[in-house]
Amino acid sequence: MKKILISTAMLATFALAGCTTTDGMNTNAGTAIGTANNIGMNVFKAAVDNQCRSQIENQSAWRIASVAMTDTQEEAIKSNVCGCVSEQAPQQVTLVELGNAAIDTQYRTQLVTRVVAKSLQTCYANFTK
């Protein structure tokens, strides 16, 4: 009799515990989606940063100006300018564009190039003043 009572009590405890964690599971699902979104955005920002650095190095004005700079100065300017570009990037894309970029590598390349082109000159001008 005691075994049945203990088993019933344990079963009721597990059943009630399951009911109380339902909201927690929804929160976890929301957290997982948020985490996936953050990871995707970080990957996108890294791609923007790489493209930005590449575009800076290909500019004639940069090549001329960099002759008078040390490696540390060059890296500091690239980091500041491309950091600015990377921070502006999420404001220039929609979730649909990010979704398409995750699936299609050609689209991703075009999107990153477009985003960098939009904000590179603005950020570069802000840091060279």
Write out key terms for the chains shown:
0% strand; mainly alpha; 129 residues
Explain this structure to me?
The protein is mostly helical and 129 residues long. Helices cover 88% and strands 0% of the residues. The chain is built from 6 helices and no strands. It has helices at 2-20, 22-58, 60-66, 71-88, 95-103, 105-128. Helix 2 (22-58) crosses helix 4, helix 4 crosses helix 6 (105-128) and helix 5 (95-103) packs across helix 6. It is elongated. The N and C termini lie far apart (85 Å). 16% of the residues are buried. The model is unreliable at 1-24 (pLDDT under 50).
Largest sheet: none
Structure annotation, total helices: 6
Share in helix? over 70%
Percent in strands: under 5%
Overall geometry: elongated
Compressed to H and E, one letter per element, the order equals HHHHHH
Number of strands: 0
Structural class: mainly alpha
Low-pLDDT runs:
1-24
Average predicted confidence as pLDDT: 76
Query: Termini distance?
Result: 85 Å
Radius of gyration of CA atoms, rounded to a whole number: 25 Å
